[in-house]
Task: structure prediction
Amino acid sequence: MTTNQALYQYCLRLGDTNLILGHRLSEMCSRGPMLEEDIALTNFALDHIGQAEALLQYAGKLEGKGRSEDDLSYLRNVEEFENFRLVEQPNTDFAYVIARQFLVDVYQCLLYQKMQKSTDETLAGMGSRFLKESTYHLRHTSGWMERLGLGTDESKRRIQQAISDLWQFTPEMLTAKSYEKELEAQGIIPDAEEIALDWLVQVVRVLSRSGLHKPQDVAVPPPISHSDHLVRMLAEMQYLQRTYPDARW
Amino acid sequence: MEKLHDFQRFIDAEEKIEPKDWMPDEYRAHNIRQISQHAHSEVIGMQPEGNWITRAPTLRAKKILLAKIQDEGGHGLYLYSAAETLGISRDEMIAQLHAGKAKYSSVFNYPTLNWADIGAIGWLVDGAAVTNQLSLRRTSYGPYSRAMLRICNEESFHQRQGYEIMLKMAKGTPEQKEMAQDALNRWWWPSLMMFGPHDNHSERSTKGMLWKIKRASNDELRQRFIDKTVPQAEFLGLTIPDPKLRWNEATGHYETSDINWEEFNQVIQGNGPCNKERMDHHKQVHAEGAWVREAAAAYAARQKEQLQEA
Amino acid sequence: MTSNHTDSQGPVWEVFTQKKSGAPYQHAGSVHAFDKEMALENARDLYTRRDKPSGLWVVPAAEIVAVDPGDAAPFFDPADDKVYRHPTFYEVPAGVENL
Ligand SMILES: [Fe+2]
Ligand SMILES: [Fe+2]
Result:
């Protein structure tokens, strides 16, 4: 695999993650627990879709086959999607939405912070642009972790449940793919192991501040495939482009 | 009586009434009814368009639609706040909505069947709404007028994004054009109904005008909307679904068939295609959010306690 | 079905924004929120979506003290007749500049 090909894969991984998370959040529009929070979640959706656009556009350029960010989003099949499994998990309740978002926010803040120093100018630029957005996201979700963790018995039970259920998907997010090693060595992308260590420290800090406990790490094998959830999501997302291939939107 | 006289003089001088000013009970009630109905319309209006967020055909379209619907939620909030200054809480307004005591615009009780509907809503529904809202910037109740000002500023892109979708569809493949025409066929009449029944001289509508809560009559606003929209439809190459539509040189206005008032009344009475669905959605989301709001309230109470102990 | 009696949307907060550094803070509107941080975040999302201000304040609406409109006349009237507070009260002789 050439450096270009590896970087293409990596941009897909980050781009798809933002795309799918943005989509999940967009499903929350008109479903927030109060209107103010509805608006906040839509902002997050907009930020992640914007990040996906930039990353997938760059991926398309690296690939060199003339595929746009829309082609990549709307015309790939499920097995070609590289997103973290964590972000395709459904919006089971508000606690899941917040827990999923929080786990990703901590990760993305660390990632983008380091990405700013990438030897690849495009990535470095995206890193500093995205960092501002993710920093705000984390502020918001950490606040909710605390409110739910220290709120009522019910909210505590729900947020603990969500964190525990989603925990199994975090190793996949934190583990570098084999093709990433070479990119790390060249200083193009941040060191995944460093991020993983910091991630755990920060997550645990917020969990304990919120009266929650870190779930047991169980040795789960990395997921071998996407979930049914993603298949269904893509069917909906890609419906128009697939049904009317000649149309221009 | 003296007070009422002064109140009227104040209004006639185009002064704004502010929350703590004296006002007749009926003025207060009229404003609460109108503003809360307006707020509910913005919020319920998020649903028909929200249906298509997850199916928006490009990333650009998805972002625009999300931002647009988010604005509508914001409009709901501005209006709830304006109504709250009159002494009703948001909880009460939501309870009234759920009990069917407060209405919302019946246009949101129609389904969105294809992507062109998203264009038609922005173009026609937002277009009709903004015609009304522009006139309401001059409404006599200060907080309502200020909310309208803010809303009108934000609305400026809503109609354009809708028209842009219509243009792409109308100039696209034959299938797309068909969808565009179909959307226009279904949304034209409900948009005209948004302005309400023909002007009558019921006591309520007379008072509304006398107190300058309403600044133009239903028919006046409807005509204004028709006159500016028909040429836009022509530009798209689409046909307005009204065989009697024609330009009247003498009056300088378009003439149309009359609205199907039977349909209008049915939808208002709750028998429209999506009334139940819209209400169920709102009630369900509200009920599902209760534990979150309770948690936030409990957390805030706990914070306050800690502050007092410290 | 309606909300149970402990349910609410939280108290009201008044929001003030500053357009740019040095400008006065102006009332933008209000939001509901349960705590200070939430009030700030809700205000940000509602009132700064389009233009980025340089400052944002939130104040619990219940803490605001206002003049009762009924008292407004005697409360504000005295300001009306202090004409000597305004520069136009003074006559500047012809030929004197920069005053
Ligand atoms: Fe609106
Ligand atoms: Fe609108």
